[in-house]
Every structure is written in structure tokens, then in C-alpha cells.
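Posting this for the archive.
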Amino acid sequence: MRYTILFILAIALTGVTGCEQEIDMDKERAAIIAVINQETDAYLERDYESVYATHVQDSLNMRLTAGPDSYVFLEGWEEVGKHLLGDETEDDLNPELHITVEKYNYRMKIHPGSAFVVCDQKWTSDYGEDTHEINSIQVRFLEKLEGEWKIAFVSWVGVDGYGEIEEVEELLD
């Protein structure tokens, strides 16, 4: 009798664990990249409603941007949303700059309800005959809410300009 009960429990447990749906990594990867690109494209088009739709809008949404001369850390959707809409955004998105953004070299760790993403980004702006490039590494954490990927954390780390600062510091020593 005891073996019969154990056998039934083992079959039931196998049935329950066997029902877990496997993650289609290619499908999820494509969906994650689409959300990240949607956010960037909407930001460049100043379509803030679409930008906002790509984010988790709670008190734990965070953004950290860092470059060779400063950084910004924002915590909570209220701060992040204001930053995306802020005055410095207007200057960054001047239509005369002809901005293009390229993201590449994606690395991801995907779970059923969350994903950790790292990618490289090149932000290019053309103004007249001047071209300016900003290279960065982005780190993002996304959550899957009601079947859709949403951005919960963004970190943007500028990788240009550090050598120039070190050279100036060496000259000052």
C-alpha cells in the first residue's frame, strides 16, 4: 500500500513538473530586442506615451547613466518619467541633430518572468558637417507583465572620453 501511494505521488509530481512550459529563447530574445528598440525609437520621435508604455511604472523602476564627467541615478517611475520628459531631453533630441542609434552585441539571461540584457550602443548625431558619436554599454533588466516585456531598470555607461580625462590628469601631475 505504501509503495502504491509513493508510486502515485511520483507520477503526479512528474506530471506537474512536466507541464512547465519551456521558454522559446529565440522568440523571447526577439520580443525583448523589439521592446528595447521601441523605447529608443519612441524617445527619438518624442513619443513619450510610447516610451512610457515600454516601462514598468512603479517605485522600483531605476535608471543610472554614467559618463566620464558625471552620472545620474533616478529611483522610482516618477523620477524616471520626469527625467525622460525633462529639459535636457529637449536639447538632446534637437531635430537638427539627425540622430541615429545602433544597438548590437546583445547578451541576455532570460527567465520566464524576467530578463537581464547587456548590449553595446552607438549614438550618432550629424549637425551640418559635424558628426558626433557616443559609444556606450547598456544594462537593462526587464520584467514580463501580462505577457509583455517591460523595462524595470536601465543603466547607460558611456565608454568614450575616459582616456582624454586620464591624459589631462597626467599632464596636471
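Strands lie at 62-66, 71-75, 99-110, 114-127, 130-145, 148-158. Residues 24-172 form a domain with the Nuclear Transport Factor 2; Chain: A, fold (CATH 3.10.450.50).
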